[in-house]
Records
---
Amino acid sequence: MNDQLPTAFDQALAAAVRAPSPHNTQPWRFVVDGAAVEVWLDRERVLTVADPAAREARLSCGAAVLNLVITLRLNGLGARVRILPDPASPDLLAVIGLDGTRRSTEQDRRLAEAVHRRHTNRRPFADRAVPTVARARLKSAALSEGGQLEFLDASGRYPKVAALVRRAESLQSEDPAFRAESEFWTGRAAESPDGVPTAAFGPPHEIPGVVCHRASHTNPAVPSRAFEQDPLLAVVLTRDQGAAADVRAGMAMQRVLLTATAEGLATSFLSQPLEVHGTRGQFLELFRGLGQVHALLRIGYGHPTRMTSRRPAAEVTTQRAEPDVPAL
């Protein structure tokens, strides 16, 4: 790529790497092939204990796809997404091709700006209700990418989900293999290009809440704080399941996260019950009839926290042919 004058692809790839991933593993690779970008799963960055089927890693790659598409659209370029994989090439997850030009919208601009502000907030949220209009926008965001967002406070699932989060956290804390994997990726220096730095950890709980947060993302060196007792929880679902559904769910999840950021909301993940064999089946069973659950989110109002770093886009991108896109 021309390193003197940024192109639309340069900016889109810089946005793609801002996607969330478990423990900030960044399990993606990009290949630029003329007017298309291929998104590949990086197997070396899949969590073998917490995510042996690479489900969360594919969600992360789907989130990267959405960031890339939004940024292309911001720059007046149409983008078409072909979600894979196929059995012949299971780690090629999606191909984004240019599709003419288009006028960027106010929504494109809001979401593109949110890409570089969105971050996981592991600290306490305020006990302040998320208004109905914001909830409606979040649900609409998921629907626009072929997903669904289901809030739990309006159903009887909330206490059962909270109990499964606590159970899964307990099982993970007792698993030496999980602890070793988590310790490898967390507690890193602030300038680390991957993993979760200690500066991004949350404080210890002053009073145990209904929902249990990751102990591995807690900094015991800072004063304990009171977390919200009943956080707003939501699940991201799709009607189908499988590798392609994981990628699509990642796109839907990311649009929800970016919309939340644009609305002034903070978000974090409660992935424990989906990562533990002993709780995953029970968790999925709670939503039978609604679809396949891909992510459990905590949503609310919180103070901005430190953003985790990312590897430069150039480090995770290879090129087969020069991108035929206009320089910006």
---
Amino acid sequence: MGIRSVGRFVPDLEISNEEVVARFDTSDEWIRTKLGITARRVARPGQLTSDLAVEALQDACARANIAPETIDLVICCTGTPDHMLPAMAAAVLRKAGLFDIRGFDVNAGGCAGGVFALDVGVKYIRSGEYSRVAVVIADTVAQCLDPEDRTGHAIFGDGAGCYLLEACRDGQGVGPTLMRTKPELYYTAFTERQDPPEGLPNRFSGPNYMRMDGAGVRGFALDVIPDFAEQVVKAAGTTLDDVDLIISHQANPTLLRRLIRELGQPESKAVIVADRLGNTSGSSVILALWEAVESGRLRPGDEVLLVSFGSGMSYGGTVLRWCGPEDFGAGRRDAA
């Protein structure tokens, strides 16, 4: 099962370090040194998670030169849906004008979605019931930050990405996927429901604020992910030395560079976009993959290690053997 194309969308509203410094007791030097971030993109007022998701879906279709109407299934992954119900997939299909396609949501716990949701889509292709599956991962975490959370506003951005999946030639595409969860670290990163203001009817009515133990996330990434990455490449029949690129969840660039060193790999193998986009939660792996493809760093036949990790704490990994157009089957009607 392979990724025929990768789509992305990030809002045009950029928040610079200077703007963060103007709001909080911090400095540009601290943000650059501790986090490695210079700017982040955030949704404009009224710009919903589904709006970002639709743009990423359409971008993936355009890059594959296929009509969205030829998709069989849309899977959306988000921790920040427009509404509790219905599924965000329904909003995406409605906004995209796709009224004859089925869809549902996956909540993989935010940042882990880059691999978890991909695995769900791959399994639907592998079932033989669906030929073309779009996996859209979008989050607007920057919209659910505590107004007083200095670090959160320095770290998080909003964004969306889309994997367009199809069956491909044997030996190419998505390799074995490993997934893990450490529930004892449940409160390392979570969205906290505040007590509803007086007069509101129920516990779902109050504000929701993203809470993150930065030191806990850093410790988890450095203690757990290196050994896990070794397990992932072993399952794929390769080694860290042999993979061409390493794309990890974009927690922050400083942590990513340290993680690459812990893996014993050169920084040149890393793909980093969080320096300009911020931590975009589940979509961050796709946004980095999109950049690797767009910049020419990832070419057909290359091996790329994908690792996502986030709240739960949940983490997943796989190795992609990147496909070229010739690796996908012919004869399917791509135009609507």
